[in-house]
Structures are given as structure tokens and as C-alpha cells.
Predict the structure of Nucleic acid-binding protein.
Amino acid sequence: MRERPCPDCDVQMEQTNVTAEGVGDLYIETERDGGILDRLGVGYQTPLSACLCPECGLTRLYADLSE
């Protein structure tokens, strides 16, 4: 995962796991109709990564897009 600074604190966010009881990996569901997600290369199910700011606790989810 690439480095991501916290937009509020400007410190390096740390990779973390977000889980929901009874749920495995988190994904976004997308429709492939030529829209913005299709142009970004997002598939029908795209895995999500979570980052946590060690200073303020902000947590963000990022779609794992091919670089």
C-alpha cells in the first residue's frame, strides 16, 4: 500500500484492518457501464484497504486501484 498522509494532521497514516462480525474482506460493488469507476479500472468487486491516523484517529477506506 502506498504512503498516505492524514489530511488533517499531515502525519503518515498507518495501514489497519476494518472488520465486521461475520464478514470477510471488504469490497465495493460496482457496475461496469462505462462510468467513472470503469474508467478508473475498478472491477465488479474491488478490495478496500483501511488507513488510520495515529494522531487524530481518522480512518479512511481506499479502493485498491491498479497503479
